[in-house]
Request: fold
Amino acid sequence: MLLLSLLFGAVPAKAQTAEVTQLVLNIEKLNQLRKILKELKAGYEILFKGYSTIRDLSKGNFKLHEAFLDGLLQVSPAVKNYARVQDIIQCQLAIIKEYKAAYGKLSSSGSFSASELDYISGVYSRLAAKSLKNLDALTMVLTAKKLRASDDERLGVIDSIHENMSDQLSFLRHFNSNAALLVAQRNSEIADTELSRKLYDLTP
Reply:
């Protein structure tokens, strides 16, 4: 009987020990799970904070970029007061003044035929049109809200316009000089012919 009671009494004790062991394991698993969840939460918070930071930086960069682009639409005093701007305008005025004066002299000289005068007029018209295009380009460079460009880029465009206008004025003066020389040569030929007629008493 004593042996039986000891045997039967050991079963509940053993079962209870197993339950306690399982409970301890469950608590350990729960603690591990809590730790994992805590780490996941911390990681999520870091990730979210990083995303927010990137988002805010992106917005800030966009604002800076937008402000930079808007700034490129403005024309600084350094560009407006650039010495070559006045030089370009003076070139334009000289081109118009000199070609009109030259054409008036050439057309009234009597040294050119109608077709020759048409050719000369065409040269002057094309030259004037090109100079006006340069003036339009200069206006765009100097007008706010018309062109996105840095000061260096605007000054580079002005330099290019100045070079082009200077070339056009040089061409005009060379052309006028050659035309005036041609008038002088033709007048000289006419004078020589008249002199020969008088010397030899020739009639036309």
